[in-house]
Specification:
10 helices, alpha/beta, DNA-binding, 18% strand, globular, three-stranded antiparallel beta sheet, 11 strands, homodimer
DNA sequence: GGATGTGAATGTCTTCACAGCT
DNA sequence: AGCTGTGAAGACATTCACATCC
């Protein structure tokens, strides 16, 4: 921000935006991608809402937390709004990831194209099993988990993706945090103990299923339910 | 319920329990498992809450939606409470699953032990790629996705797990619903259009990461944030 | 005494409804 | 006229605080 610019940033209250809003922003982004591919140029909150079975007012309010992106009477410019959300979510910056665990899940995550597409780059893979250490995945050498601290530091890792067994997860998570990782996406089927100064998101596949079975069991009219969230533990 | 019993069920309002409560129930269940393994027999709402960085009152309220499981002055019997939650979540019944997509993600899901442990059994695997059709995974023959309707019916599938590319997801989902599947756990990176009478949960890995980066970018004091949810799209 | 279960208070999120811009 | 942006109302979720029971 240039010195002569209005010093807004200093007192611009960083209103605490809710988790759900951020989730929906991710959705909007993807809907806009779809619409752009269809050749559309502008979109109304009504249509954007319809795509996700949401209320138009909610769409507008979500967006309004971050600024005014639309034009009254016209709607939102798809390209512009897409870019804005991109920036808001922090996807503009390339994030440096490490993957711990080169088992089935690890390999699925590694080869899951969406990560790279969304600006997340897996720079290193660690594994405990000596049989896998030294193998190469797509040009990346699998290293020993013993070298965790060194790898994290030399690659300046931001985010770690944990795809290790539950038993190993707690210890690995602690080491990652000490080594300076700032966020963890945990796929181990265990809720990691909280630690100050780090952002953890647990993703537990079995729990997702349990959410479904509860609804099934209770014959819940599903219409608009069970969608708002995801792989979260 | 026997005829002479108090006819409670008829008007026992199935109070709509929130998604978050159900999620937490899944958590409680896992915490109780941990505690049982440690040899504990009873637990207070305070300690149970501490394990998940929650408020004790919330734990008690969550449980109270379903009944009174504790003993005043004493706490909750771990075994009993575990069983109760098990029933509540509908995990008692074995659920019959089909997996669509035998790629990296499909195979990771298939071999992910937590599913079976939690009472979910994958009875069939479908795939489009002819090279994979006919292979066997752990005694289960991979079939062609062309046979979807037949397989769903003959195995009486309850839930389908989608691990297919985004492009294929919508069509496959429609076929699954028509064939009688009641719930979908969707890993394809697309939000499926809503359909009446079916429960869909979208799990989008890239979106989970975007939730993290938003917090990282904004230097959010992470302490108690970013945990409540998961693999949700 | 110690911990549950729960009405009431508080806090947060969603939806309404309309002023205001194009 | 059409659609955004937003205060205010309403719905929902969380937390407090205490009566109740072991």
């Amino acid at each position: 921000m240039s010195p002569q610019s209005f010093a807004a940033a200093d007192f611009m209250e960083k209103a605490k935006i809710s988790e759900s809003t951020i989730r929906r922003m991710s959705h909007y982004y993807r809907f806009l991608e779809e619409m752009e591919e269809e050749g559309l140029e502008t979109i109304s909150s009504k249509k954007l809402a319809a795509r996700g079975h949401l209320n138009p007012a909610k769409v507008r309010k979500d967006l309004s937390y971050f600024g005014s992106f639309g034009r009254r009477g016209k709607g939102y410019d798809i390209k512009l709004l897409k870019q804005a959300i991109h920036d808001i979510l922090g996807v503009t910056r390339k994030w440096r990831l490490i993957l711990i665990g080169a088992g089935n899940l690890g390999s699925a995550l590694f080869y899951f194209g969406e990560f790279k597409k969304a600006g997340f780059e897996i720079l290193a893979v660690l594994e405990k099993d000596p049989a896998k250490i030294g193998q190469e995945w797509h040009g990346i050498m699998i290293c020993s988990v013993d070298d965790l601290e060194e790898v994290v530091r030399s690659f300046q890792i931001d985010i770690a993706v944990l795809a290790v067994p539950a038993k190993a997860a707690v210890e690995v998570a602690e080491r990652l945090v000490r080594a300076g990782v700032k966020a963890l996406l945990n796929f181990a089927p265990i809720k990691l103990p909280y630690q100050r100064g780090i952002i953890i998101r647990d993703v537990n596949l079995a729990m997702e299923l349990e959410g479904l079975t509860y609804l099934l069991k209770n014959g819940q009219a599903p219409e608009f339910r069970a969608d708002d969230n995801i792989l979260s533990s």
